[in-house]
Amino acid sequence: MAGPTTAERQKTADGGSRPPRPPRSRVRLPRTRTLVLSLIALVLIGAGVVWALYGSQWLRVERVTTSGTRVLTPEKVREAAAAPVGEPLISVDTDAIEDRLRKKLPRIDSVEVVRSWPHGIGLKVTERKPVLLIEKGGKFIEVDAKGVRFATVRHAPKGVPLLELMPDQESAAASLRRFDGDRLRREAVRVAGALPAATARDTRAVKVRSYDSISLELRGGRTVDWGSGEKGRAKASTLTALMKAAPKARHFDVSVPTAPASSAS
């Protein structure tokens, strides 16, 4: 009689039967046809997007809106912007519109041109604010806190002081030798820009006798010796406190902010 086979001996040695091994799975690569169809679909989708952005009538400029204007009118801003109405919104050169607005309208300090999908262009304008006026030929030149002369108007805006260059005597002559008229005007702008809001509204004139001799003429006949344009923030704080402490004073001196003074005359 024949003995046990090798498989039977292995089964006996293991004490039982082993579970059958699972068949190995094979990774199937995508077929060439599937890859080609996928690529064609991507190309068609891309072409459709490009056509929608540039060739269709769906995403074109139909309206231009403005915000932030105070003195300028929205119509004037839109006219200066010359946004390409009817052109594809995606192709609008926003930087060119911003440059055009700043060149044509000096009153604009900054502007942001934004696309408003699907049909709009938005113009967000920040206008310059005058801190000082220069009278010339019966008109008034508006100057902002950066010293930029941005507009000439017939009537002086309310609450904006007038610049008065009043050089006199030897100190003024020495100052003019060191600092020309433009530098003195810049110092006056520097002073006007540092004034507290309440004081700025009450200031009728900024008088410049020399670089370090600048004074303010306030409403009601009050005056302020400011000195030079240096330490403007400290002088503004000192002036505010001094006016509260001596509300009936007529003259204030903050040329040395650590040693202020006030008087009734």
Describe the protein in words:
- By secondary structure, the chain is of the alpha/beta class.
- The chain has two domains: 63-127, membrane protein fhac (Ubiquitin-like (UB roll), Roll); 130-263, Rossmann fold (3-Layer(aba) Sandwich), CATH 3.40.50.
- It contains eight helices and twelve strands.
- The mean pLDDT is 85.
Summarize the structure.
By secondary structure, this protein is an alpha/beta fold.
Strand order of the largest sheet: 7-8-9-10-11-12
Instruction: Give the helix/strand class.
Output: alpha/beta
Number of H/I helices: 8
How much of the residues is beta strand, in percent? Answer: 25-35%
Looking at the overall shape, the CATH architecture of the largest domain is 3-Layer(aba) Sandwich
General shape: elongated
Oligomer: single chain
Task: Report the end-to-end length measured between terminal Cα atoms.
Answer: 142 Å
- Strands, count: 12
Radius of gyration, rounded? 39 Å
Instruction: Provide the residue-averaged pLDDT.
Output: 85
- Major sheet details: 6 strands, mixed
Order of helices and strands: HHEHHEEEEEEHHHEEEHEE
Provide the domain count. 2
Write the layout of secondary structure elements.
Layout: H1 6-14, H2 32-55, E1 63-67, H3 74-81, H4 94-104, E2 108-116, E3 120-127, E4 130-136, E5 139-144, E6 149-153, E7 162-165, H5 169-178, H6 181-194, H7 197-202, E8 203-210, E9 213-218, E10 223-227, H8 232-245, E11 251-253, E12 261-263
Parallel strand pairs: 1-3, 7-8, 10-11
Antiparallel strand pairs: 2-3, 4-5, 5-6, 8-9, 9-10, 11-12
